[in-house]
Amino acid sequence: MLRHIMILGCLLGLAGPALAGEAYQFPENQDEADFIANEVIATFYHELGHGLIDVMKIPVLGKEEDAADTLSVILMNDIWNEESATQILTSDATAYALAAADPNLAPDESSFADVHSLDIQRYYAVVCLFYGANPEVRKQLAVNLGLPAEKLDSCPREYQQAADAWSAVLQGTEPGPDKKGLVMAPGQDGVPLADLLAEEVKGMNEKFGLPEEISVIVADCGEANAFYSSSDKTITMCNEYAQDLQKRWDAQPK
Ligand SMILES: [Zn+2]
User: Fold this and answer.
1) Which site among 25, 41, 131, 138 is 20 to 30 Å from 83 CA-CA?
2) How far is the CA of 46 from the centre of ligand 1 (A)?
3) Cα 45 to averaged position of ligand 1 atoms, centre (Å)
4) Contact 208/172 with Cβ under 8 angstroms?
5) What separation in Å is there between the alpha carbon of 62 and the centre of ligand 1?
6) CB burial readout 139-162, b (16+ within 10 A) else e
């Protein structure tokens, strides 16, 4: 999930990802639709992390994928009110939990060697960071999401360290007249996933001014994925990614 595949990005960059033939439509069930929308937002923040690392030439100490996951939690914590942020984090954690429980995605050697941490590790990492950002209010959430009691102590420090690090490397990204920003690729108005992301793009442009433009596109990719391409400065959110989230939600034991 969320494979940051540079080679694929380059390949797609040559031909350009196919704009969606038939736009993904959110399901009628509100809980399911919220889960998918929230997770698309969390994933968009993750891909934006790759984009910022690229255009701001941010040094990466450790796994870039972990850094992108961390930024995703920082943004959901910073941007949203407590209730909405909690819903987004819960959806994000749920997506990792569903992936971790999927027998088709059982970890093997390629997972251990992958650029991403294991889904179950990503689950605990995002829960720990989110809890650590506001421990007085979020303890019950962390307990409900199964964060081990012995882990609770270190999360506030881990969050602070991560937030300080991202804040330091994002110095100078305030919006301004000489700055560029995120832009939705044209021709996507009325596409539900694109409309959702357009709101996020608007919010991010109030927060960040960038040296280069990053475009955002919703497309058919041929696989359930979302990725940033450094070759054409594009975040692509695949229709198949939303479809896959929906499939996984539907497959939960009722
Ligand atoms: Zn990634």
Assistant:
1) 25
2) 6
3) 10
4) no
5) 13
6) eebbeebebeeeebeebbebbeeb
Single-letter amino acid code for the residue at 57: K
**Ligand 1 centre and the CA of 110: distance in Å?**
16
Centroid of chain to Cα 37: 11
Asked if 158 and 128 touch (Cβ cutoff 8 Å), the reply is yes
9 CA to middle of ligand 1, Å? Answer: 12
- Per-residue pLDDT of the chain in tens (254 residues, 90 and over written 9): 444 333 333 333 334 455 556 789 999 999 999 999 999 999 999 999 999 999 999 999 999 999 999 999 999 999 999 999 999 999 999 999 999 999 888 999 999 999 999 999 999 999 999 999 999 999 999 999 999 999 999 999 999 999 999 999 999 999 999 999 999 999 999 999 999 999 999 999 999 999 999 999 999 999 999 999 999 999 999 999 999 999 999 998 87
Q: In the chain, where are the structural domains located?
A: 6-250
- Rounded to two decimals, the pTM is 0.91
Give the distance (Å) from ligand 1 centre to CA of residue 224: 13
Ligand 1 centroid to residue 254 C-alpha, Å: 31
* Residues in Cβ contact with 109 at an 8 Å cutoff, skipping those fewer than 6 apart: none
Place of tokens 């994000």: 92
